[in-house]
Amino acid sequence: MGGLTGGDPSLLRRINSAVVLHALRATDCATLTEITRVTGLSRPTVEGVVEGLIEAGLVVETAADDGMARRQGRPARRFRFRAEAGHLLGLEIGPHRVAALLADLDGRVIGAQAKDVEESATADERLERLRTAVAELLRRAGVARGSLRAVGAATPGIVEADGTVRLGTALPEWTGLPLGERLRRSFKCPVLVENDANAAAVAEHWKGAATESDDVVFVLAGLSPGAGALIGGRLHRGYGGAAGEIGALHLLGRDVTPETLLSTTDQPLHPLDEQAVAKVFAEARDGDQRARAAVERFIQRLVHDVAALVLALDPELVVIGGWAAGLDGVLEPLRRELARYCLRPPRVTLSLLGEAAVATGALRLALDHVEEQLFAVEGATARR
Fold first, then answer.
1. CA separation for the pair 131, 142 (Å, rounded)
2. Shortest CA distance to 370 belongs to which of 154, 105, 143, 183?
3. What's the CA gap between 196 and 91, in Å, rounded?
4. 229 pairs with which residues across the strands?
5. Cα–Cα distance between 170 and 222 in angstroms, integer?
6. Dihedral (CA of 205, 234, 302, 160) sign
7. Model-level pTM?
């Protein structure tokens, strides 16, 4: 932006609008004098920008406090960012449920809806279940579909940049599904699709256990674990969106699948049969020796998978989520093994967001998109 001159009035207006809007969004409300002081812009420039933002529906003048008006005469005009000027959706599409979060333009959640879905459901059935959940959520919140500015969606699988699921073994008919295209038919706004573990990593960095760390590995632990990584605070997707697929590590010279590791019989568990998995862990807690041995095998494999990713990325923090976050004693074995393998072991903690992590991360992706539009020239030097 260093080459801006007086001959760029349109771009200059966008820069000043972004600067003023950013200042208003950072506070409950502000006077023109306060905005002028914070932004460094001239008073006439601020007045013109604020009027333009009011016309655009992004800013509104707030009513004066009656008590203040009586004490001080006519009070200074105060303005605020209209977070209600638009809305965002964060969607989770999983093996056993679909979920939606609705938020305003500040990212404040104003509604949530979840629905169970059969693991054997077809792609069409699963997406119809999601559409029903969204429709109920919008109706209950009194929000028109046209108010949506962006939608984020998170799903298991390797996701291409255009929202196509290149590989998705956890859900029937998911591999090759043009998920982004299918979702865009339901919305008149941008739709962003991301892997579920990646979305959960973003969520923990935003509102969960990783708010103070920029180099983070989030492990969405299950029979086939996945992971998302933030490097320098930015999501690392890899060249083709497949970064963090640690569930495939058993293919590297390991014949025993996670479903077999956790089995207490001669038959492997079904990868999506959460009730069977829960039964094994319950039996282990009750002292069943075969179940305890199965859980120990499973935790050991999980620890080695996580250690491989930690060795490659050297994160400050590892966050464990998914249903394995509820395992008794999962943190200590993980810390112990990481101390053995890593020159500088990371901190290890459990997710603070629980089952809301994936949808929350999808919501953050939608918010990021809107913020890029609102503040596309943020950081450029504003002209006085």
1. 16
2. 105
3. 10
4. 217, 236
5. 11
6. positive
7. 0.86
Indicate the burial class of 233 (C-beta count within 10 angstroms; 0-12, 13-18, 19 or more). Answer: exposed
Question: CA dihedral defined by 242, 248, 252, 257, rounded to 10 degrees?
Answer: 180
Q: What digits encode the pLDDT tens for the residues 3-47?
A: 434 445 677 888 899 999 999 999 999 999 999 999 999 999 999
Residue type, 176: G
The pLDDT tens digits for 264-276 are 666 666 555 567 7
- Supply the DSSP string of 90-159, one letter for each residue: EEEE-SSEEEEEEEETT--EEEEEEEE--TT--HHHHHHHHHHHHHHHHHHHT--GGGEEEEEEEESSEE
Q: Which two tokens stand for residue 95?
A: 């093996």
| Distance (Å, whole) CA 267 – CA 259 | 9
Q: Which two tokens stand for residue 184?
A: 């865009």
- What average pLDDT does the structure give for the chain? 86
Q: What is the pLDDT of residues 190-213, one digit of tens each?
A: 999 999 999 999 999 999 999 999
Note the pLDDT of residue 4.
39
Distance CA 216, CA 306 (A): 12
49, HSE (Cβ side, Cα atoms, 13 Å): 30
Q: In this structure, which amino acid lies at residue 364? A: R
Ranking 108-117, 161-170, 254-263 by mean pLDDT, the lowest is 254-263
Residue 239 pLDDT > 80: yes
Which two structure tokens, joined as six digits, stand for 260?
Answer: 């077999």
**C-beta separation of 62 from 78 below 8 A:** yes
The DSSP line for 238-293 is -TTS-TT-GGGGGGTT----HHHHT-SSSSPPPTT-HHHHHHHHHHHHTT-HHHHH
pLDDT at 379 over 50: no
**CB-neighbour burial class of residue 110 (10 A; exposed 0-12, middle 13-18, buried 19+):** middle
